[in-house]
Specification:
By secondary structure, the chain is mostly helical. It has 4 helices and no strands. It has a domain of about 35 residues. The radius of gyration is 29 Å and the shape is elongated. It is found in: Cell membrane. Its main location: membrane.
Length: about 80
């Protein structure tokens, strides 16, 4: 039979625990969890950066100080 039964999985888990110990497996789990969390964070940051770059910019978003000063002078005087 090519498939794994529940007993194969249980025996494999026992052997792994005996070889590495629970403390090393616990640390490995924390490391893998931290790596996944960092990966998800970087993907979200990349999506925000990409979406911000794809949005069209208007004159208000560019914030050119020369334009603001020239319009203020024409309205004030």
């Amino acid at each position: 039979m090519a498939g794994l039964s529940i007993w194969h999985v249980v025996i494999f888990a026992i052997v792994v625990i005996l070889l590495f110990g629970t403390s090393k497996l616990k640390n490995l789990g924390k490391d893998v969890g931290g790596a996944v969390k960092d990966f998800k964070k970087s993907i979200k940051e990349d999506e925000v950066t990409t979406s911000a770059l794809n949005e069209p910019r208007t004159l208000e978003h560019q914030g050119n100080p020369a334009d603001v000063n020239s319009t203020a002078k024409t309205h004030s005087g």
